[in-house]
Amino acid sequence: MKKPANNKLYNFVNSLEGIVMRYAYVILAIAFLGCTSAQINQAINDFGKSTGDNRPTSSEVAEGLKEALLKGVSVGADRLSQADGYFKNPEIKIPFPPDVKKVEDRLRQIGLSNEVDRFIATLNHGAEDAAKEAKPIFISAIQQMTIEDAWSILKGQQDGATQYLKKTTSGQLKAKFKPVIQNSLNKVNATKYYSDLVTTYNKIPLVEKVNPNLDEYATDLAIQGLFVMIAKEEQHIRQDPLARTTDILKRVFAYQN
């Protein structure tokens, strides 16, 4: 090509020609070698790196999102499974079942506040004991995340990863978590205390008898608390570069920013 008077234009055209030729090489390689779709994606990803494009590859996005979710799950479950992880966290503390709040109020009126408080404490300790069993259930769902899921999460809402996890695990999580909660409540005597309180209440003259499902209630609230903590960790990773403790997290979420 004859060098024009305008050096800037000459340099720009030369650069453009170089990029076009490099794309042509990629396309020719695909055409003549009969690559699979996976190989095509890899070729394009490699080309992006060679041209200095800082956009993460599809595989990096999937890997980074899975790592972020695994970190959120681990941090959330570990914090909640510690002593008083639920009980001393006002945001997720499990209260006396609200649909029978009248039971709590009446029992306190007749001098059984200590017994009610003991039950609420053991209810939360049961959830703490069960929280450590949640990790394998979450991990299984995370490992099934597709590349399409990952891109959607990366460019979506600030709690997109948590919402994905909630959508894909809630049914399975509840089915597997409920017997764990039952065992945990039994272990810390929450079931016994609750039964004693309800029995005492039902003996009060003229009250309407109650017998709500404690296991169902505790399971739902325990799972809800887990998702609250996972969402907090996801937000932390998205917003604070210092929370991105590995190279893949830094690369993927830097692109999001």
Give the arrangement of secondary structure elements.
Layout: H1 7-33, H2 37-50, H3 58-81, H4 101-109, H5 113-131, H6 135-143, H7 147-154, H8 160-187, H9 190-202, H10 214-239, H11 247-256
Helix pairs in contact: 1-2, 3-5, 3-6, 3-7, 3-10, 3-11, 5-8, 5-9, 5-10, 6-8, 8-10
Question: Can you offer a commentary on this structure?
Answer:
73% of the residues lie in helices and 0% in strands. The radius of gyration is 28 Å and the shape is elongated. The protein has helices spanning 7-33, 37-50, 58-81, 101-109, 113-131, 135-143, 147-154, 160-187, 190-202, 214-239, 247-256. The longest helix has 28 residues, at 160-187. Helix 8 runs antiparallel to helix 10. It is mainly alpha-helical. It has eleven helices and no strands. It has two domains: 1-53, no CATH class; 57-256, no CATH class.
What are its keywords?
single chain; 257 residues; mainly alpha; 2 domains; 73% helix; elongated
Q: Please state the CA-atom Rg, rounded to the nearest Å.
A: 28 Å
Helix percentage range = over 70%
Q: Helix segment count?
A: 11
Structural class: mainly alpha
Quick overview of this protein structure:
The chain is 73% helix and 0% strand. With 257 residues, it is mostly helical.
